């Protein structure tokens, strides 16, 4: 069963959102984590990483072909520049598992100067495949009850 998602590629990361109005993605796949893409039937294409195969479905065969060719072209260019594998993630100031409101399981958080990155697991952190990356400029932290806190951004409260 496919869930409708708004997908965006900025040349460095493939991000998918719940809708085109969402300020934060539901998932981020860095280009450096993608091993290959391939088209399949029913307007679907696969984005293959070392950890997982992501399957996307487009509205038309032409859209599928455009997505595949764009991603494959960027992957070729990345390999020509000598960056075929994900670099080691920058060393965060603090990492650990956190409970995130709205998620059933705990998430792995990595705090770096100016950014809080959320991942499904420590393994996802190692491969660079995140849930979302929160720019901390303009954010504030509010302590709440029982060892928890809210991260207030201009767009959303985490």
UniProtKB/TrEMBL annotation:
SMART domains referenced in this protein's UniProt entry, alphabetically: PH (SM00233)
GO CC, any one term: cytoplasm
MF (Gene Ontology): phosphatidylinositol-3,4,5-trisphosphate binding
Domain PH, residue spans: 1-76
Matching Pfam families: PH
Domain of life of the native organism: Eukaryota
InterPro entries: Arf-Rho-GAP_ANK-PH_domain, PH-like_dom_sf, PH_domain
PANTHER family from the UniProt entry: ARF-GAP WITH RHO-GAP DOMAIN, ANK REPEAT AND PH DOMAIN-CONTAINING PROTEIN 3, RHO GTPASE ACTIVATING PROTEIN AT 15B, ISOFORM C
Protein name: ArfGAP with RhoGAP domain, ankyrin repeat and PH domain 3
Gene source species: Mustela putorius furo
Lineage: Eukaryota, Metazoa, Chordata, Craniata, Vertebrata
